Automatic annotation (TrEMBL):
InterPro entries with a match to the protein in the record: Longin-like_dom_sf (IPR011012), TRAPPC (IPR007233)
Keyword Endoplasmic reticulum: yes
Keywords: Endoplasmic reticulum, ER-Golgi transport, Golgi apparatus, Transport
Annotated localization: Endoplasmic reticulum; Golgi apparatus, cis-Golgi network; Golgi apparatus
Pfam family of the protein (one): Sybindin
Transport as UniProt keyword: yes
Protein known as: Trafficking protein particle complex subunit
Organism of derivation: Micromonas pusilla (strain CCMP1545)
SMART domains in UniProt: Sybindin
SUPFAM superfamilies: SNARE-like
Length: 156
């Protein structure tokens, strides 16, 4: 039987790139309707992505019951990334993941989420061909969102 690995023999984790890594939109039922990646991070397979979205939806619902002040926005921070979340009045959750230190404070992350919400309202919800609660396939939304995130990442 071999000895457990020591800290000196463990492989180093790759450094997370700075800036916003991804944007997720989860419908009120907990289904992932949009996800796009804006940084060179390790890929997540489709099934794992769907499980993470559903799990975050459930955690958000539990936290909202524990404290009403958490009902709309729920930040989560780890050593590797920060997750910012905002909920629309209709129950849709907007999430973004970013590197630690991307935003000076929680309010700056929420400001980016407000931009995402505004783009979602303007280019998705006002699209006569979009069916609510279904995956988002709107080229103009994706382009405007990429431009907004690139602006944030350029400033980071």
């Amino acid at each position: 039987m071999s000895a457990p690995p020591t800290p000196a023999t463990l492989p180093e984790e790759p450094e997370n790139p700075p800036g916003v890594h991804s944007v997720w939109i989860i419908n009120k039922s907990g289904g992932l309707v949009f996800r796009d990646v804006y940084a060179d991070i390790a890929p997540i397979d489709t099934n794992e992505t769907l499980r993470l979205a559903s799990m975050w939806h459930s955690m958000h619902a539990i936290a909202a019951q524990l404290g009403p002040e958490l009902r709309g926005e729920l930040p989560s921070e780890t050593d590797g990334f920060h997750l910012h979340c905002a909920q629309t009045p209709t129950g849709t959750k907007l999430m973004l993941t970013c590197a630690p230190g991307t935003f000076a404070d929680h309010d700056a992350g929420q400001a980016v989420l407000r931009t995402v919400r505004d783009l979602y309202a303007d280019y998705v919800m006002k699209n006569p061909f979009y069916e609510a609660e279904m995956p988002i396939r709107c080229e103009l939304f994706e382009k405007r969102l990429r431009d907004a995130i690139d602006a944030v990442n350029g400033a980071a």
